[in-house]
Amino acid sequence: MTMIPTPSHIRDLFLHPRPSYSPAEAAEAVGMSIEEVLGFTAVGELEGIETADGVVLPWAELVSFVMDFWDQADVEAALGAELADALLELLQLADLEVRIPRVEVIALERIAIRDGRSVDSVLARELRDLISAESRWLAKEIPGFASVLSWPE
Question: Kind and range of the H or E element at 120?
Fold first, then answer.
């Protein structure tokens, strides 16, 4: 897959959202080919809505999809001073220092290399599963957590 977001792709998608995008508009917005967008739609990775004019992709669906591929650090860097306008505070990156066994560090590094991602993004992807499993309890413990769960809706 060739999804190559530029800062202008990121800024346009997050700061100038449209309610929905045709497959061609979605491809342009995220730096993919129309064939790739249609392929992801065909297998259900991108869920479109059938309209009289054909399938459209809601903004929230498109953003959810690209956040699985785009590195969040790149997104935040592209948004710069307008980050707070586009991303809830609880969803913004924060530093965390942890001590874990060396084998886990090495494993994370190798998985990141294999997937062409950063260690941060690999670990964040795995932590999303934990947070999802604990979401009922976390919603009671963290103010604003429910909003995070429904973002980008």
Answer: helix 119-133
The tens digit of pLDDT for each residue in 7-32 reads: 999 999 999 999 999 999 999 999 99
Contact between 31 and 9 under an 8 Å Cβ cutoff? The reply is yes
Catalogue all structural domains in the chain, each as residue range(s) with its CATH number.
Answer: 1-87 (1.10.1660), 91-150 (1.10.1220.10)
Handedness of CA 41, 44, 45, 47 (dihedral sign): positive
How far is residue 38's CA from residue 35's CA, in Å, rounded to a whole number?
5
Distance CA(15)–CA(8), nearest Å, equals: 10
**8 Å CB contact between 70 and 32:** no
> 140: which 2 tokens?
């009671």
CA nearest neighbour of 152 among 76, 86, 57, 84: 86
Q: CA 76 to CA 14: how far, in whole Å?
A: 10
- The span from the CA of 49 to the CA of 107, in Å, is 39
Predicted TM-score (pTM) of this structure: 0.83
97 Rama class: left (phi>0) / alpha (psi -120 to 50) / beta? beta
Which helix (H) or strand (E) segment holds residue 55: the answer is strand 54-58
